[in-house]
Design brief:
single chain; 112 residues; 2 domains; 7 helices; extended
Length: 112
Amino acid sequence: MEVSEMRMLRWTCGKTMLDMITNVVFRENLEVGSIINKLREERLRCFGHVLRHPLMTPARRVEALTVDGVRRRGRPKRRWEDQMKIDMKELLLTEDMTSNRNVWRSRIRIDE
């Protein structure tokens, strides 16, 4: 995803890979943040919304579902919950902090 983002930024500036310009230069010129940080920000925002809902709403009831049956072979697909745990661990957040938007937004901007 980051590769296609940089390709679009280069195209916007009218440059190609042959011009040998670093990614940082394009980000500074266009004043654009990393798409990875934006995706993480949206996941945290959505997670905070879900946590604020009462337990009986459909969004919260899905968390408690268990699926019976045989799992597929190989590596399991990354779930949304797993990615949220990774994001919170990287930003040193707890579940309580995710409902306070100012906390995680400031930590994402620090990492940029």
